[in-house]
């Protein structure tokens, strides 16, 4: 089974990639816990790392045909609990439980790629037992369908009953929707494009975020307004550096003024003849003194 969650921290955005099957069958979960890559227990560890970073935006890329509804609901809640601005974008075949995770996005931030097919359907399970046991499973499936439809309805402004009807098409197998149909049903907000993908900045914006991160790293407050230079982060950075340099020069000049010049007492300035010299040097010094007296 291809099931992975990858988390990558960029300058101001955390990227989460969800691929493959969400969760594993219940019968496998106790036998090999390490295989629960996309399930809540492993995902919670990743979400706890998100809580420790300063990024306020999260982008979740989803390419999954679904999986365990329980795990999908828990991932949905874990994402919502981060308090960050979340953008979800669906690629390829996005179906079943994966569509629940996609609803964790912030308002207006549920995106879908132009070539994606999107599927919602009734929940299903494998079961055996007597009539009472089978009826209990039917009741659980009905409740699960209602819960999923409520999640869809809470984000679309449409009724739970409308989504239950859509999920029940084709004998409960639902219907694959195009991006336009998915938008029309209120399951996503927009088709991903250069205009809608605000969490994937262009080169200029990424450069700007890099400079801002560098300024923060060296202790410069990037939240200070510079009305004279507008939004050009490079000019703002230069102006900040100049201001810091000006402050340093003022302090240097004040320190200079506070220091008095060195004063030497006469006795601390020894005469050239105040020390013992060899005879030749002594004769030379006497000649110099004699010549000076002639010209004075």
3D structure, described in words:
By secondary structure, this protein is an alpha/beta fold. It has 2 domains: 3-191, 2-enoyl-CoA Hydratase, Chain A, domain 1 (Alpha-Beta Complex); 203-258, no CATH class. Helix content is 45%, strand content 15%. It has 10 helices and 9 strands. It has helices at 26-29, 40-50, 69-81, 97-102, 131-156, 160-167, 179-184, 203-217, 233-258, 279-295, and strands spanning 3-9, 13-20, 57-63, 85-90, 93-95, 110-112, 117-120, 175-177, 190-191. It has a 6-stranded mixed β-sheet. It has a 3-stranded mixed β-sheet with strand order 5-7-8. Helix 3 links the parallel strand 3 and strand 4. The longest helix is centred in the middle third of the chain and has 26 residues, at 131-156. The mean pLDDT is 75.
Notable traits:
single chain; 296 residues; alpha/beta; 2-enoyl-CoA Hydratase, Chain A, domain 1; three-stranded mixed β-sheet; 15% strand
Highest CATH level, the class of the largest domain: Alpha Beta
| Overall shape | rod-shaped
**How many helices in DSSP terms?**
10
Distance between the termini: 108 Å
Briefly note the structural class of the backbone.
alpha/beta
Beta-strand proportion: 5-15%
Sheet having the most strands: 6 strands, mixed
Number of domains: 2
Classify the fold: give the CATH topology of the largest domain. Answer: 2-enoyl-CoA Hydratase, Chain A, domain 1
In total, the number of strands is 9
| CA gyration radius, whole angstroms | 37 Å
CATH architecture of the largest domain: Alpha-Beta Complex
